[in-house]
Amino acid sequence: MNVIILGSGGCVSTPRACCSCRVCTEARQKGFPYARTGCSLFIEDVNLLIDTPEDINASLNNSGIRKVEHILYSHCDPDHTMGMRVIEQLKMDWLANSLGKKPDNPIEVASLPAILEDIKKQGTKYGSAIEYYEAKGLIYTKKIRTLKYDNIFVELIPADEQEHVTIFIISSNSKTIIYAPCDVKPFPKSEKFQGADLLIIGNTIVGNVLKNGFVLNEDNPLRKELFTLDEIDIIRKQYDIKEVIITHLEEDWGKSYDDYKELEKELDGIHFAYDGLKIQL
Ligand SMILES: [Zn+2]
Ligand SMILES: [Zn+2]
Predict the structure, then answer these.
(1) Exposure of 132 by Cβ count < 10 A (0-12 exposed, 13-18 middle, 19+ buried)?
(2) DSSP for residue 162
(3) How far apart are the CA of 15 and the centre of ligand 1, in A?
(4) Ligand 1 center from residue 145 Cα (angstroms)
(5) CA–CA separation, 273 and 36 (whole Å)
(6) Ligand 1 mean position to 83 CA, how many Å?
(7) Ligand nearest 40 Cα, by number?
(8) In CATH, which of 3.40.50.150, 3.30.950.30, 3.60.15.10, 3.40.640.10 is domain 2-280?
């Protein structure tokens, strides 16, 4: 299978508008892969996109994506959903629409039942954006727990009891990728994670010294919400996962593309994502 990390950034993209820190300045000068858009993933084999951050249009262009047929959502947090207007950019033909025509082959928008309900609540004073797109024939929605397209199988494993956040297990030809972009601490227990080839995970603080020399003390509340690299290593060993790629990299971590490349050399089996990173398994 062929997977692309379209967006490797966190809640805030890099460069952050108006920020003159070292990392943002370099990203502004050099562009990708120093720049990072919001967190998203693409499965090329079946034109499947996971999550639509605000700058997803730029991410799709950067990776040269030609077609999106399915959109899955990991959860409803704004940094993963507020770019859902990309559906209009992908499917809306205003001229044909003026003649009452609906587009061919609407995009499938799917997730766990509770997540899809959350997503439908997002919109404007005119109502639910997703329901509007469905009425216009741009998409259709589907509550799912698994899906299979061609040789790609995707299983959604809830990360919390109420099932408002999901982890994806993507498999094909006995290769398995776990995609756990956000809000997955504590990491749920499942035998299904055992022996995976790759874990792509967000929610991780990288280093103890962050942007502008901020020192992350032992009692900092971020440690409860987010994983440390040591905790990621424990998950990796617990499930005997071959490789890990950390994504959802916050500008607040104060590290550039080159810094992450340097850091990788000190770590065993842990790598860092960048926009446009292609994974072939
Ligand atoms: Zn900055
Ligand atoms: Zn997030």
Answers:
(1) middle
(2) T
(3) 6
(4) 38
(5) 10
(6) 22
(7) 2
(8) 3.60.15.10
Q: Residue 16 C-alpha to ligand 1 middle, in angstroms?
A: 5
What does the domain layout of the chain look like in residue ranges? 2-280
Tokens of residue 133, six digits = 């797109």
What ligand has the least distance to the C-alpha of 13?
A: 1
Residue 211 tokens, joined? 């942007």
Distance of CA 3 from the midpoint of ligand 1 (Å):
28
Q: State the virtual CA torsion across 73, 167, 270, 281 in degrees, nearest 10.
A: -80
CA of 27 relative to ligand 1 center, distance in Å: 9
pLDDT in tens, the chain (281 residues): 999 999 999 999 999 999 999 999 999 999 999 999 999 999 999 999 999 999 999 999 999 999 999 999 999 999 999 999 999 999 998 898 889 899 999 999 999 999 999 999 999 999 999 999 999 999 999 999 999 999 999 999 999 999 999 999 999 999 999 999 999 999 999 999 999 999 999 999 998 889 999 998 989 999 888 999 999 999 999 999 999 999 999 999 999 999 999 999 999 999 999 999 999 99
